[in-house]
Design a protein that fits this description.
alpha/beta, about 40% helix, about 325 residues, 7-stranded mixed beta sheet, Rossmann fold, 2 domains, 13 helices, 5-stranded parallel beta sheet
């Protein structure tokens, strides 16, 4: 008898999901997008569109993207999150850690799929990576010791450097939680570490002024959403101030910063359509496990090294996944 009840309940749930799937496939789905840049200008837009097409979703006829951009000005995020939620899209893409929290404040019912969130568990976006719970899931999570590894890479690239800087955002919980590992790594490497707060691109002039006063010889940058669209600006300042720097984003290294070490957003963009497809076909976000990156890449811009007058160790160059020459 109990088994029959359980089977009937399971059948009822399946029927509800089938109806949701049918509804999703028989009308134009609406996908919300909240990011530092509009979806039309998103560097990996093509990867998302191609992935959606492979799963049977054609932009314009099967789905549309309603895009809002805070253009690097983070104080606008909460206002835009409220605006996007009022539009009642079927699912919302949160493009970074900075947008997830504001969206969660505005809705507990609309599915939210994040991409490139630094520490979804530590930031409180999900209750578990395996079973997120609630209305939020997605792609993200920094590997254990990533920032310490970044500091080690800076030292290996510049063996004579004794004073290293690290730019972080004190408003990001996963940046704050990484401070002890940076301190431990600096002690282990025998270098002096200068941690400098940077919240937006507007703080960059003050950052480089502080690095000059402290005679910092190389700079690590923790990931922030303004970095990718402002890669050329950041690279120009690094060249102007003769500052070797490491960023998490390979796109920023291609723009002219010396090195990048971290996940590739392109990998996450390729995987994003899977989550959108599952949610639009009726899957509960809280039942979809958060996927963490399985590979981290080292990108070196050799042109920038030459411009800075640096000769990087050959053994270090051989470790790179990509060398821009």
């Amino acid at each position: 008898m109990k088994r029959r009840v359980l089977l009937q309940a399971a059948a009822a749930v399946t029927t509800l999901h089938d109806r949701a799937r049918a509804q999703a496939l028989n009308r134009v789905a609406r996908i919300g997008w909240l990011a530092s840049v509009h979806f039309s200008a998103y560097l990996h837009r093509g990867l998302v569109i191609d992935g959606m097409r492979e799963l049977g979703w054609v932009e314009g006829s099967q789905y549309v993207v309603e895009s809002l951009s805070y253009e690097g000005y983070m104080p606008r995020i909460q206002e835009l999150a409220a605006d996007l939620v009022r539009r009642r899209p079927d699912v919302i893409i949160a493009s970074s850690s900075a947008t997830v929290g504001p969206l969660m404040k505005e809705t507990s019912s609309i599915p939210i799929v994040f991409i490139a969130a630094g520490d979804p568990l530590g930031s409180g976006f999900v209750t578990s990576l395996a079973r997120p719970g609630g209305n939020v899931t997605g792609l993200g999570g920094l590997g254990e010791g990533l920032f310490a590894k970044s500091l080690e890479l800076l030292r290996q690239a510049l063996p004579s450097a004794q004073r290293l800087g690290f730019a972080h955002n004190p408003d990001f919980p996963f940046h704050v939680s990484a401070m002890p590992q940076l301190d431990d790594a600096a002690a282990r490497l025998g270098v002096q570490l200068r941690k400098v707060p940077v919240r937006t691109q507007d703080d960059l002039p003050a950052l480089f002024a502080e690095l000059a006063r402290e005679r910092v010889q190389a700079l690590g940058l923790m990931g922030q959403p303004w970095q990718q669209p402002r890669g050329a600006l950041l690279a120009g300042l690094c060249l102007e101030h003769r500052m070797p720097a490491l960023t998490p984003f390979d796109e920023v290294a291609r723009a002219g910063v010396l090195m990048a070490y971290g996940w590739r957003i392109s990998d996450l963009a390729r995987r994003l359509p899977y989550y959108l497809d599952r949610v639009l076909r009726g899957a509960a976000p809280g039942e979809l496990p958060v996927e963490q990156p399985t590979r981290f890449y080292l990108t070196i811009n050799l042109k920038t090294a030459r411009s800075l007058g640096l000769t990087l160790p050959q053994s270090f160059l051989l470790r790179a996944d990509e060398v821009i020459s």
